[in-house]
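Input sequence (227 aa), recorded before submission:
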Amino acid sequence: MSGEKSLEDKVYEKLKDAIIQKKFSINYKLIEKEIAETLKVSRTPVHTALKLLEKDGLLAIIPNRGAFVTKKTYKEIEEAFKVRSELEKMSVRLAVKNITDNDIKELEKILDQESDAYKTKNRSKAYNFGSEFHLKIAEKAKNRFLKEYIGDIIVKTGVYDLIYILNDPKLEKKYFTPTQHYKILEALKERDGKKAEKVIQAHILTTEKQLNLVYEEAEDPLKSLAE
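Predicted structure, token format:
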């Protein structure tokens, strides 16, 4: 069936969601054999999924020792968000020159869907719509490399949003992402590049500053995967 997710993708998303929801403690060792048995799959898709999670920065794979859940230092997170801020500023600056009224309508629809997802507390879905919003803007910048780099940095910084801010009800309410996204959209509607740069920089850096770097240890992390 066209569009159906591969087994590797399903395992990857299952593990990623578990890490994001803090069902694994920091330095928890993920053992391929145990995960494969829990999910009733072979070790091959598990191995592939662990490699992808390492690329996302969620795991550290140490030769001859295994895969471990990592905890980012504040400096690492700060550096990632600073890079993203500069890339996103360039993105909106270029997009303003090319964006059409139909593009604006598309972006507005994405944000409405993101807002609905937040209201129903579907954080993963909301994150996906938020990422789509940023990538759609990058697409309108009409620079293939810029879109590629933004896509990569969104993966690395986006998981921090999910792990830290969206798991803290107080921060989630205070820094309601769709509200900030609508401000970016307003600047794009006005075709105001400088305003768009200022708003998107504030959005990215505000998110970075509010990150809560505390993980909570789950009592039985593997059990949660089978649910």
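Checked by second reader. Strands lie at 29-30, 59-62, 66-69.
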